[in-house]
Amino acid sequence: MQKLRYERPVIQKMNAGLMNKFGTRTEYEPVKQIDGVAVKAIIEQYGSPVFVISERSIRRTYQDAVRAFKTRYPKVQFAWSYKTNYINAVCNVFHQEGSWAEVVSGFEYNKALGNGVPGNKIIFNGPEKTNEELKQAIENESLIHIDHFDELYQLIDICEHTSKKPRVAIRVNMDTGIYPMWDRFGFNYENGSAWNALTKIVASGKLQLTGLHCHIGTYMLSSEAYAVAAKKLISLAQDCKTKLDTTILYLDLGGGFPSANTLRGAYLPASDTNPSLEEFAEAITNTILNAGFKTDELPLLILETGRALIDEAGYLLGTVLANKRLSDGRRATIMDFGVNIMFTSFWYEHKISPAQDFTHHTEDMVLYGPLCMNIDVVRETINLPLLNRGDHVVVHRVGAYNMTQWMQFIQMRPNVVMIDEKGNTHLIREAESLPYIEQLEKMPGHLAQFTL
Ligand SMILES: *Cc1c(COP(=O)(O)O)cnc(C)c1O
Question: Same domain for 194 and 289?
């Protein structure tokens, strides 16, 4: 039998029956495995920190989302938002499930092509598209979503020299009752820019106007905002029909549905505050179905959902490096992962679970990352059991935006592992190495040598 480990006594102010400013206690159960694979075994094989993605969770979440929309509306198509997580293995799970690709740059566009997505199933969004990228997208018959007038004129100009008539949509921004308004992307609805752009597209005779697009924000907490957005897109579509004799084939409502992560500073957990995907689906599909389209002329409904489809499937496993006392007496625990690989710790209070058994003692503490930088705070305050050097933790819901927004600052990016539906682990992105990081650097000859 192992000798019990000494745990120092802690004196804590009683807060019986009240929430304190740290919220309620975070975690009562250790999380020792993910999809049946032991956390310890994953760390032993792939190191710490390490990202883990559950293929089963992606497929289940995706299928639930598709069901929520398809049971309410007959023509639905999802397009995977590459920027949310563009590790190819992750993208391909979505493509295997039937998702198209939604990209916001030439880099992402080529990633989607490289994964084998047919060009005509790539939606090309974003404010920056070079001439070469637009020509490639025209050649591949992709869906080009125009962001601003300069891009519209650029496209018309390119079309002077090609026989193809590209399929285009415009991105529309609008007042949906959510402020601040996201009005920097696309053409504004209320001031008439959107309509102006549509008339120019049709008048040019060089472009096929096929769709209308909006993406009204991210981590949206109101399903009503989507009903407003759908209504405004529909009114444009109806004007296209009656005034421009052009049928809009699809309405793309973008992404923006929240995941189950709790926002920083939120008093209640996300599960208590966020509408379900069904509520969003209900708001959007009711609006379209009640707009007076003939049944055989109902537009295709496209969704570019990102975070709500992948956050849940991503975990970050890490290890305690050290504990210390801050000058004000607070406990600080230093982890081997920081804001470099967990960008979303700026927005979310991620659920963090110890990965081994613990006693009933808990303490409010600050969780720091390993970077030599003051802003490297994983959590300002969290109530956790006492963690010792070498203990492991599991950070939940890190699948969205971390593996694309991670920064190579001080540390290199770690391994990313996928657990398949049979419980096998696969390395899907290798940890970076010094030669990998340095391969793009060039040393001028006169700086190659020095003596100290
Ligand atoms: C980022 C983005 C998405 C995905 O947004 P989520 O909030 O992650 O669902 C969809 N469409 C466009 C145009 C985007 O820029």
Answer: yes
Provide the greatest CA pair distance for the chain. 83
Distance 442 CA to ligand 1 centre (A): 36
Structure confidence at residue 356 (pLDDT): 96
Question: What angle is formed at CA 389 by the lines to CA 426 and CA 28, rounded to 5 degrees?
Answer: 75
Pair of tokens at residue 48: 């710490």
For residue range 294-313, what is the model confidence (pLDDT) as tens digits? 999 999 999 999 999 999 99
Q: Which of the four pLDDT bands, split at 50, 70 and 90, describes residue 19?
A: low
Which residues constitute the domain of residue 401?
Answer: 33-53+313-432
Expressed in angstroms and rounded, the spacing between residue 27 Cα and the centre of ligand 1 is 31
Q: Look-up: residue for tokens 């820019």?
A: 193
Chain-centroid distance, C-alpha 380: 23
pLDDT digits (tens, 9 = 90+) for 370-396: 999 999 999 999 999 989 999 999 999
- In angstroms, the Cα distances linking 339 to 279, 328, 433 are 33, 23, 19
Q: What value does the mean pLDDT of the chain take?
A: 94
Q: Token pair 């996928």 is at which residue?
A: 418
CATH of the domain at 426: 2.40.37.10
Q: What angle do CA 162, 166, 167 make, to 5 degrees?
A: 175
* Of residues 162, 121, 111, 126, the one with CA closest to residue 142: 121
Check whether 22 has a pLDDT greater than 80. Answer: no
Dig out the tokens for 99 from the structure: 């998702």
CB-count burial class (<10 Å; 0-12, 13-18, 19+) for 296: exposed
Three-class SS state of 274: coil
Cα-to-centroid distance, 128 and ligand 1 (Å): 16
Are residue 348 and residue 225 in the same domain, yes or no?
A: no
Residues 150 and 126 both lie in one domain: yes
The pLDDT value given to residue 17: 43
Index of the ligand 1 atom closest to the CA of residue 309:
9
Residue of 102, 148, 280 with the most ligand 1 atoms within 8 Å of its CB, for mutation: 102
DSSP state of 4: P
What the block records as the tokens of 354 is 């110890």
Residues 145, 278, single domain; the answer is yes
CB atoms within 10 A of CB 437: 12
Query: What is the distance between the alpha carbons of residues 384 and 352, in angstroms, rounded to a whole number?
Result: 8
Q: How far apart are CA 223 and CA 225, in angstroms?
A: 5
Which atom of ligand 1 sits closest to the CA of residue 217?
7
How far is residue 306's CA from residue 308's CA, in Å, rounded to a whole number?
A: 6
